[in-house]
Amino acid sequence: MNSQRELRDPIHGFIQRTELEERIIDTSVFQRLRGIRQLALANLVYPGANHTRFSHSIGVMHVAGRLAKKLFVGPEEVVAERIRLIRLAALLHDIGHGPFSHVAEEILDEYFDSAKVRPANQEKIHEIITAQIIETNEELAHLISGTEREKITALLKGDGEDALAKGIVSGPLDADKQDYLLRDSYFCGVKYGVFDIERLIGTLCIHADAFDEFLAASEGGVYTVEQYVIAKYHMATQVYRHKVRLITDSMITRAFQLGIEVDNLGWLKKVFSFDGSAEFVENYLQWDDARVTTALLYPEGKGGYATELFRRLRERRLFKRIYTRRLAEFESPISRKVLLDRMRDKAFRQRLEESIAELLTSEMSVPVEKYHVVVKSFSIKSVKEQSRDSEGSIIVLEDDKIPKKFEEVSTLFKSINEKETDQFIEVYAPVKYDGEVDKRRKKTKFMEGITKIMLKSIDLQQELNYNSSAK
């Protein structure tokens, strides 16, 4: 049996690693995760949020191992092997993340080679890259057999036959969420994501049907699950959707887009244009947050839009949120539907940004670049929806062992209106205000002017759609 080695973690205390796990952690492909922050540039609003994918991945391995040890039953050797495999899958689940974590996902999804890469339904490009790294990386191949690596990628993709293991790695109660809620909350210095993980793990159990076993919560764990789901909701509304976090994420995304499309930075396009090749992965693994930042900022005379935006981020000269409106505030149901549909169209957003830049230029003492206006739409799921994910509802086993959906068992969640999902449209731009009075005056003008621009743009679109259908 492999010897155990300890490391001290601020969230879980002492974490035990086997010799194999330690050797995997020591590989360069895993050590790269030290340079990828969990929450990108959230440290510009939460100064302590400097934690990385490295520590998170180790934490997920620890939680997944605890869940597996509690739930897996059978012959000792079989159970030990299942636990070993699920810990490895949890350890490697984020190894394909790009610079600035989830911010890179939007760029990867935008610029991958669709002729060579065919994502499955809801599959993210970084997940495909993760699987390719696990299956082909030479360092990992020296430590994990080919058969085991295939099992790990199948488990991470949800293609395996072990539904219980899949629920531990990816599901509404998975080890990933249990770790990142506590970890993000701790390093951001907030209490929103705190829940009783000891009690939650203690109340998790197995629901077995005629075909498989699934992760479930016992009836006595309903209150703890409520706490966990509310923690997810509060972290989404107060941290992940904090206005400064949204602004910095948008500035990074826009910098990458402009660097690729306008500045013609070949190296940047190469980092994010996944084509399924070994050459792409080899290059991709050389990049983290610091290297991208250095490449954009420091070569003398480089210039360009991407450099300018990253200089703003470094100096914390951030864009301002000049417009925020719930989609429900637009009176016409047709306007709401058309706006929601059209906001998915990049060309439509670019036309809005150009018109808004003209409006801002007329109100400001200096011209505002169209590239420096960001129109963004996003939604915040209702707290009831936070109890589910793409894999379905949390299962609760009552005393009669009949499985029921958590939202049907919880007295608190039964009373919540599921449709109360907030959808927002926001605009960010580099504006300045001369005091509070000027700020209020300009923001009022911006709100009125931008709303008119949006309504005019969708009225035109409706007219074009009508004329097209009439023909």
Describe the fold and architecture.
It contains 22 helices and eleven strands. The chain has 471 residues and is of the alpha+beta class. Strands 3-4-9-10 form a four-stranded mixed sheet. Strands 5-11-6 form a three-stranded antiparallel sheet. It starts with a strand and ends with a helix. The mean pLDDT is 91.
Question: What keyword list fits this structure?
Answer:
12% strand; 54% helix; 471 residues; 4-stranded mixed β-sheet; alpha+beta
Topology at a glance:
Layout: E1 4-9, E2 13-18, H1 19-25, H2 28-31, H3 53-71, H4 76-92, H5 102-111, H6 125-136, H7 138-141, H8 146-157, H9 163-169, H10 175-188, H11 197-203, E3 204-208, E4 213-218, H12 222-240, H13 243-261, H14 266-272, H15 278-284, H16 289-297, H17 305-314, E5 320-326, H18 333-342, H19 346-363, E6 374-380, E7 388-389, E8 392-393, E9 395-397, E10 403-405, H20 406-409, H21 411-414, E11 422-429, H22 435-470
Parallel strand pairs: 4-9
Antiparallel strand pairs: 1-2, 3-4, 5-11, 6-11, 7-8, 9-10
Level of helix content? 40-55%
Could you say which structural class the secondary elements and strand pairing correspond to?
alpha+beta
Q: Approximately how much beta-strand content do the residues carry?
A: 5-15%
Strand arrangement within the widest β-sheet reads 3-4-9-10
Overall mean confidence score, pLDDT = 91
How many helices?
22
Q: Low-confidence spans: pLDDT under 50, at least 5 residues?
A: none
Distance, first to last CA: 75 Å
Biggest sheet descriptor: 4 strands, mixed
What is the approximate shape?
globular
Radius of gyration: 24 Å
By DSSP, the count of extended strands is 11
